[in-house]
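Supplementary notes (optional reading)

For those who missed the lab, this is the record we used. Protein: GTP cyclohydrolase 1. Length: 469 residues.
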Amino acid sequence: MGALEEGHFDVELENEVKLGCTELGFEAEPETIDIEDAVKVLLRGLGEDVNREGLRKTPLRVAKALREGTRGYRQKVNEIVQGALFPEAGLDSGVGHAGGVGGLVIVRDLDLFSYCESCLLPFQVKCHVGYVPSGQRVVGLSKLSRVADVFGKRLQDPQRLANEICSALHHAIKPAGVAVILQCFHINFPNMGSVFLESNRQGWVTVQVCSGSGVFENECAEIWGDFLSLLKYRGIDMEKDHRRDSHDQCWCPSQSSSGEKPSSDNGPANPAMVTAVASILRSLGEDPLRKELLATPCRFVKWLVNFQNSNLEMKQNGFAGGRMDLRTPHGEVTRYKKQIHSELNLSFWSQCEHHLLPFHGVVHIGYLSTEGFNPIAKSRLQSIVHFYGFKLQVQERLTRQIAESVSSLLGGDVMVVVEANHTCMISRGIEKFGSSTATIAEMGLFSTDPAARAIFLQSIPNTSTPVGR
């Protein structure tokens, strides 16, 4: 394996911020500074010290992430498509479905992310775009993705996102018709009161929406069948009638069926924090008085205060965890006088202190005990996980804190594995869709004995991690 020379590596580190900036003077722009000031209000409202290590640069990181994630407000579709239309002779207009060129064109599996206008948390999108060329011209395929990204990089609702992509492409390309199908995935966040009651809560809320123009305007048109068949051919199995009714309740988990009651029951939101979020909306180019955004600051604050700097009571009730015989990877019983107990797939939710974005996943805990020892109740271990999860956190620290807490109960031999999906990995320009992170903490015998570590790691099933899609 190769590596950067030490001198070159130092230059890379020194220039990290400059290399990562896409706009000159970005940090000095008034919008960035206003967002930083608002984020400081939010952190203080959570009882945090904005000057502590780990939080000092959080306001700037949040400002950069939000402005990057909403850059679509500063982009124009015509500037993207202009110059990307190419002549392509084909069938005469009106013959078959060709519209003058040769047939349906589809770009599948475009990964996008957008910020939910109801709660300001990012959601993932799998976008499929099709169009029927006309006027004997086609558009560069990359432009379909770029146009979709323009509207994705705004505060959005899935159906409006589909409609805006469809409408923009229709007016810019002037085809016989445009079809857009979106598969959207929103983090299904709990609050502290419900998380103990819903241990099997799924990580994502999903919705499928579509929009069509021209020859796709009629949902029953045969060309929709062609579009859906070409998706199914690639393993994307969708029902023909998948349009979400505009009168349906909001898909965002921050709203109940009434569409207004937030999911959290933490009481009235902090007025200063609500005002700060409204200020952020204005700095991003949005109108906080827009109908769909009126309750958004309050919803975001109610989500955020789940992670305020306070103590969460550890619930002690519960039943005993499972027990596993100590065996080597080859199935041979070891000579240890202790046995390995494990508790797998303990759910957790947390908030990244670097970007104020949620991450969640599962925790696996293994520990050694003497013969006849009663395993720790699952509910007690889950309580420990939630205690350290519902804070501003980083995954490495969370893993260590859980291990140290369990070790203090048992006196030593503990191993903890945390598997997580981080929304900051899709919403800061990095856009590593489907990625997940695993961290390990080892104490006592687990830190010195590879066989013990291997036994516990092999007990974690391949299907245990409900992260990503």
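If you only remember one thing from this example: Residues 30-45 form the longest helix (16 residues).
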